[in-house]
Specification:
heterodimer; A: alpha+beta; 2 domains; 3-stranded antiparallel sheet; 2 helices; elongated; B: 239 residues; alpha+beta; 5-stranded antiparallel sheet; 3 helices; 30% strand; cell projection (chain B); cilium (chain B)
Chain lengths: 262, 239
């Protein structure tokens, strides 16, 4: 049957996936610490009808031959770890990372997940946890009578207790950094987990070895740019349209062929 | 009589290939660094066969089935800014070189990333090569890649990305190209940008319309020959 029919349908499929990724980005435009994705495509295989360099007439050669491409395939949804905008909330436990790095949290099964969303809370045991109740790693417990919590740029957490003037250090927030954050696996809830592609994290004090500093009272918004996504959406839709036209045209050709025999 | 039918059939076959190429271009309209394929459906002239040969008439007919040629239009695609440090676009001529097994292939798809061993790789994990055909290793936090391909990591030059001019370009698939190296290219590398495909929808649309209409015309010719044959069979026999 007509190759172009299938070729064009791979194009439609690719644009559908493109739109899926764009919709996900737009749905998370207001999600703290969300990192946008971009669908990446590659052309598929080529069928060589005439091999390049094959002899043509009288001792000459085809310089490029005839190759028929068979369409497109999605190859990756690359994640972009460009910084999102930092907004001032004034909340003591809203922390943003100014630079590379991730907060570490412990999942209920004991594995460590990584996040850029620094909207932490205190649970009833005084632990600093995410909105889902996952404790920050290494764990930090805030005394019940703490008046004011201060988090330094280097991650030191100090509290002021009644009757004292000197702040007491209760822990240090460490950040993890990945050589290839694009290889992290998103598991939802603003969390990422380590994979073979991301490499192992290097953890340490904020502000050292390329890890960003912590800014207290700020939240990092998503890095989704609405205007850009809308432009991408238009491109995806038009690309889908035009591929459907190619399907139609192939169909018309087929119809003509069928009509040949009356 | 039958010669005509065969000739028109080859014409229809050609249009089909033309549409295949257009469909592939359209499918890859959003593929980073894709270079469009142009199908030059140059039919061989009727008398291009060898008239001195005894069965020249049939040779003519077969000559029509010869393909013209295709070429890969390597013109610049639109550049799009992404701010991602590993997105590299080439402005002007040239290709990046990547290693696939023991072979060097070429690509314009500059949406690279770093693997866990710090190699600069394509989205499918092929290692990007430097001037000396060694894989590029980027180990550091602040990565700056100059227009000439020089890689500065935390302020130190660690190498230079290979940008090569290639001749006799052919598609390999998966955004890779093969060809013959012809020395260094004078294109410039832009960090934080990607190159869109150079497919122009309007162009492809016109080609598509041309292909389908030509197909229709040729089909008419086939039908006409068929009618002639029918007459020959039914009307001449009546006399």
């Amino acid at each position: 049957m007509l190759r172009s029919l299938f070729t064009a349908s791979t194009g439609m499929y690719a644009q559908q996936l493109n739109l899926d990724v764009i919709s996900h980005n737009l749905a998370n435009v207001n999600t703290t610490g969300f990192k946008k994705g971009r669908a990446e495509f590659q052309d598929l295989l080529y069928q060589n009808i005439i091999n390049p360099g094959a002899p043509s007439d009288d001792g000459t050669q085809y310089p490029t031959g005839i190759q028929i491409g068979l369409g497109v395939r999605p190859v990756a949804v690359a994640k972009f770890f460009t910084p999102g905008d930092l907004i001032n909330t004034g909340n003591d436990l809203d922390l943003a990372i100014d630079g590379d790095g991730f907060f570490q949290v412990t999942l209920p099964d004991g594995t460590i997940a990584y996040t850029r969303a620094g909207n932490f809370r205190i649970d009833r045991d005084g632990r600093i946890v995410t909105n889902d109740g996952y404790p920050i790693e290494p764990g930090i417990t805030v005394p019940a009578d703490a008046l004011k919590i201060t988090v330094g740029a280097d991650g030191t957490v100090t509290v002021l207790q009644p009757g004292t003037v000197a702040p007491v250090q209760i822990g240090t927030i460490e950040l993890a950094r990945f050589i290839n954050p694009g290889g992290l696996q998103a598991i939802g809830k603003n969390l990422f987990i380590e994979t073979d592609a991301s490499g192992a994290p290097t953890t340490g004090t904020p502000g050292t070895e390329g890890r960003g500093r912590i800014v207290q009272g700020f939240l990092e918004m998503s890095n989704v740019n609405v205007v850009e996504e809308l432009a991408n959406m238009i491109i995806a839709q038009r690309a889908f349209d035009i591929n459907s036209k190619a399907v139609q045209t192939s169909d018309e050709m087929l119809q003509t062929v069928v009509a040949l025999k009356r | 009589m039958y010669k005509g039918i065969y000739i028109s059939m080859t014409g229809m076959g050609m249009r089909q290939y033309e549409l295949d190429a257009v469909a592939n271009n359209l499918a890859n309209i959003n593929t980073t660094g894709y270079k469009r394929q142009q199908f030059a459906s140059r039919l061989y002239p009727l008398l291009s066969g060898r008239p001195y040969e005894p069965n020249a008439i049939y040779q003519d007919a077969r000559a029509q089935t010869y393909f013209g040629t295709q070429y890969i239009d390597t013109s610049q695609g639109a550049l799009k800014q992404t701010h991602n440090p590993f997105d590299l676009a080439i402005q002007g001529e040239g290709f990046f070189a990547v290693r696939q097994g023991d072979k060097i292939l070429y690509t314009r798809e500059g949406s690279f990333t770093r693997d866990r061993e710090n190699f600069l790789v394509t989205q499918t994990g092929l290692k990007v090569l430097d001037e000396n055909n060694n894989p590029v290793i980027i180990d550091g936090t602040k990565i700056e890649i100059g227009r000439d391909g020089n890689i500065l990591v935390d302020g130190n030059t660690v190498g230079r990305i290979k940008l090569v001019k290639i001749n006799r370009v052919i598609h390999v698939g998966h955004s890779l190209y093969d060809g013959v190296e012809e020395g260094q290219a004078n294109g410039q590398i832009l960090q934080g940008w990607i190159e869109s495909s150079n497919v122009n929808p309007m162009n492809e649309m016109v080609q598509m319309i041309q292909a389908i209409r030509n197909f229709d015309f040729t089909q008419r010719v086939t039908t006409t020959f068929d009618q002639l044959a029918q007459r020959a069979v039914s009307e001449i026999a009546r006399i």
